Amino acid sequence: MPEMSNLDSYPPVFRHLNGAPQRAAELKNAMEDTQGSVPIPVVDLQFLSLDKLGEACKDWGLFRLVNHGIPPSLLSQLQDHAKKLFALSFESKQALLTSPMSYFWGTPALTRSGDALRGALNINWLEGLNVPLSQLPQFQSEDPMLDCFRLLLKEYGRHLARIATTLFEAMAKDLDLDPKQSQSYLAESTGFVRVYRYPSGSMADEAWGMIAHTDSSVLSIVSQDQVGGLEIFKDNKWLLVNPIPNTLIIHVGDMMQAISDDEYISVKHRVRVNKREERFSICYFVFPAEGSVIHSSKYRPFTYTDFQEQVQKDTKTLGYKVGLERFRLIADG
What we know:
The protein is globular. It is of the alpha+beta class. Helix 4 (72-87) crosses helix 6 (144-175). It has an 8-stranded mixed beta sheet with strand order 2-3-11-8-13-6-5-4. The chain has a 5-stranded mixed beta sheet with strand order 1-10-9-12-7, covered by helices on one side. A two-stranded antiparallel ribbon has the order 14-15. It is 31% helix and 23% strand. The longest helix has 32 residues, at 144-175. One of its GO terms (molecular function) is metal ion binding.
C-alpha cells in the first residue's frame, strides 16, 4: 500500500493499487539505470546568444533559462495554490475543476477535449490539471481559491507566451528558417498549462511518475519545485536534472525537431517519484497554428492535428506513442 498522506485527495486507483502498477521486473532494472545529476546548458534570456541557444538545442534538446522576467513571487504563488488545490478531496476536484479546465490522473495523454486517453500500457503515478490558456476567460468559479488561481495562471500565461515567442524567433534565426513560412509554426493561441502532482511513498521503487516520452509541442516550458525527479536521456544514459530556484527548464518538442530538419532534438525524458515528498510542476506547451503545414526534408508534410490524431491512435492501439517516426520520409535505395 502506498504510504501517502491525505489519502482521500488521491484518485481511487492510487489508493487501492496493490503491488506495482507497472511491470515490476522491467521497472526495477530501469529504476537503477540513472547515472546521477548533470549540469545542463544555461541560456540567458536577457543576453540571448544564438550560438549557445543553438548548441543546447542540437546537443541536448533542452536548457535551463535564467533572467526570464517572471517574478519569483508569481512562481511561488502558483506552486502554493497548486498544492492547496491538489490537497482537496478527489471528489471536490472533480466537481470544481470543470470545462474549459480538466482534471485527470494516471496518464498525461489527453484527448483534444482534455479527457484522459485510456489505453496506455502503464499507469503514470501522477494527477494533473489541464488549462487551455485561450479559454481561461470562459472559466468562472465562485470558489475564491480557484478564482485566484485563474488570475495567477492568466498572468503566468502572458509571461510564457512572451518567452516562447522570443525563444522561437531566436531559434528560427539560428536555423535560418524562412520568416514567412515559419510565422505559423508557433501560435500563442495554442498554448496550454498542465499542473502536475506526483505522489510520494513506497511506490517510488515500483512506479514512474511519468514514463519516458518526448513532448509533442514546439516548445515546453517547465517550472518545477525543489523536490526534483526530472531525468533526461542523453548519450545512451539517463541523467537527473536538478531543480534550481527561479529558473525554467525549456524542452525542444517533436514539432520543433521536424521544423529544424532534425538539427534540434526532441529530448526524451521521464519523472521519478520521490519516497518522502510529493513533487509539483507547472508545464506550458505551445504548438503550430491550426492548419499550419510543417514542411521538412526529413518528414512528409503534416499538420499538428495529423500528428495528434496519429499519437492518439497509437496510444489506444499499441499502448504508447510512436511519434515522429510515423511521418519520416523513407530514403530511396
